Amino acid sequence: MVTTRRGTDIGSPAPTDQVPGKLKWPAPTVSEDGTEFTAKTFLYLFVPFVVFVTYIGALFYTMPHMEDATRGAVIDAVRPPHSLKDAVVMRDVLSDYAKENEFHVALVVSSVYVFAQCFAVPGTLTLSLLCGALFGFYKGLAMVMAVNLTGSSLCYWVNTKVGRSLAFRIWPAKVRAFKREVEKRRSNMINYIFFLRVTPFLPNTFINVASPVVHVPYYAFAIGTVTGTFPNNFIAVKAGMKLSEMTSVSELYDPQTLALFVGLGFLVLLPALLTSPPDFSSQEEDSKQIEDKSK
Asked: Based on the number of CB atoms within 10 Å of its own CB, is 220 exposed (0-12), middle (13-18) or buried (19 or more)?
């Protein structure tokens, strides 16, 4: 702040409630720079979305030797949100078709999976079950691991452009808490991402969107994603081979399985945890930051 020779302060704007004819400023929700959702930001998100939807639509309508009724049933079942019933329908419709057109079915399922992972569309778990049901354990697991990494990576790279605008608008406090944790664990970043993937503390959608925002290196993001999602994908693909016996997706995650995942995550992160325990609290600090910036 600068004081003129006449005693007038300049360098900081006057409160808007003291300026006649102007609206009062709304209280900001975040203090980080670059969170404006501009037309350019919208294009970075909208253009890949349209291209992907067009590509998937073209795949569905060019699948060879498929009757219109069958194609319609698959399209209806694959629309989000996916359920266990949808997975059963797709398995029943596609199982015979996949015997002679395995490549085309794998291409469609993997493309839908990558799209859902990239744009945070619900339903990837049921698609993992479907991979196990259609392609068996080894092929299904390899396919799920590949498309999971591809979709998460695309989400990471898209959000290098739009993630700041989205993350700080949707999860402002949680992003700041995540940023603090990332800064504390720079030397163990792969282990930390593994820990987040294998435990239920943060949703995978949040990790995919917020990681580039808080500058998680891509190599750590990719390695942590492949290794950290393996146990979950293993269970889903294995369960998909017995899809008819399942009555609910919640059967995959009994308390013993969740405890095993949490224990595995803490074991991998143990060296870092001994020096700095994780803090996933998302307490709002906006009011304090606003007061500090107004001084």
From this structure: buried
Closest CA to 115 of 51, 63, 204: 51
Handedness of CA 228, 234, 237, 242 (dihedral sign): negative
Cβ atoms of 162 and 118 within 8 Å: the answer is no
For residue 9, report the phi and psi dihedrals to the nearest 5 degrees: -80, 135
Return the closest-CA partner of residue 119 out of 220, 50, 169.
50
Q: For the range 78-82, what are the long-range contacts, defined as Cβ-Cβ under 8 Å and sequence gap of 24 or more?
A: 78/112, 80/116, 80/121, 80/122, 80/123, 81/122, 81/123, 82/122, 82/123, 82/125, 82/126, 82/127
Q: pLDDT digit string (tens) for 175-234? A: 999 999 999 888 889 988 988 998 878 889 999 999 999 999 999 999 999 998 988 898
In angstroms, rounded to a whole number, what is the distance separating the alpha carbons of residues 180 and 128?
33
Local structure of 247: helix, strand or coil? coil
**Contact at 8 Å (CB) between 116 and 124?**
yes
Name residues whose C-beta falls within 8 Å of residue 216's C-beta, 6 or more positions apart in sequence.
182, 189, 193
Number of Cβ within a 10 Å radius of residue 77: 21
Residue 185 — φ and ψ, nearest 5°? -120, 30
Each residue of 140-150: pLDDT tens digit?
999 999 999 99
Task: Tell me the two tokens of residue 245.
Answer: 């016996």
How far, in Å, CA of 137 to CA of 257, rounded?
Answer: 19
